[in-house]
Write a structure and sequence with these properties.
The protein is α/β, with parallel strands linked by helices. It is 34% helix and 15% strand. It has nine helices and six strands; from the N terminus they run H-H-E-H-H-H-E-H-H-E-H-E-E-H-E. It is globular and about 50 Å long.
Length: 234
């Protein structure tokens, strides 16, 4: 069986941002990307988005219903992270998720004791999309976060019964309803009270809101959200 140092020599690690080969022993991103678009304070007290002023909530959260308690994003959804995350989805760069999952766990860890989490719930994708892609990126992220923080993953708590219609022309409320109709929940154990919903990208918040509504209706008490990237909604 190959040990890890030898494996790194034969199959060198790649930078999750630009895919360049890392120097042997190097981890994370390459030296070309020492400055990345991390979300910085002040944060929106609901979705966690970076704010330009001292308002309590961002304009999106002021306009739209947010049933989750709080969001914890790592990056702003801008380059070069945007292209990296899209490469995960559409070019099978799933190995990048080890890096992003570790950063997401680090983002949550200082808040962990106060959240009293029962476990993690990955945002589901329909089985046809998972078969086509070969994986659910949210589930792979949850695997890393769960292992790092010592939390279980509830893979059967939330799932999609059918794929949704394209959302580009829909309003935020219509987007949430579109996704909500495609979601079903499994049985919630009596001791499963607070969960961290995991996804890769948050833009309008429609997916997260639909998932949160489904989980609350199923008996979960509080839903928190952990995402790699957060962008501007509408």
């Amino acid at each position: 069986m190959w040990n890890k140092p030898l494996l790194d020599l034969v199959y060198p690690r790649r930078c999750p941002v630009c895919d360049s080969v890392l120097v042997y022993g190097e981890t994370g991103v390459c030296k070309k990307h020492q400055t990345l678009p991390f979300v910085k304070a002040p944060y929106c007290m609901k979705c966690g988005k970076e704010l330009e002023d001292e308002e309590e909530y961002c304009s999106d959260c002021q306009r739209h219903t947010r049933s989750f308690v709080r969001g914890y994003p790592v990056f702003n959804y801008t380059e070069p992270i945007k292209s990296s995350i899209l490469a995960v989805k559409y070019h099978n760069k799933r190995e990048y998720l080890d890096y992003y999952g570790a950063l997401l766990a680090r983002r949550i860890e200082p808040e962990l004791a106060g959240l009293h989490l029962s476990g993690l719930v990955p945002v589901p994708i329909h089985k046809s999309k998972k078969r086509e892609r070969g994986f659910n990126q949210a589930e792979l992220l949850a695997n890393v976060v769960g292992k790092t923080l010592g939390l279980p993953i509830y893979r059967e708590l939330l799932f999609r019964t059918h794929d949704t219609i394209p959302q580009k022309e829909l309003s935020p409320a219509e987007r949430t309803n579109n996704i909500r109709q495609a979601l079903q929940t499994g049985t919630v154990a009596p001791d499963c009270k607070n969960v961290l919903l995991i996804d890769d990208i948050y833009t309008t918040g429609a997916t997260v809101q639909a998932c949160t509504e489904a989980l609350l209706e199923a008996g979960i008490q509080h839903v928190y959200v952990g995402v790699v990237c957060i962008g501007e909604g509408r």
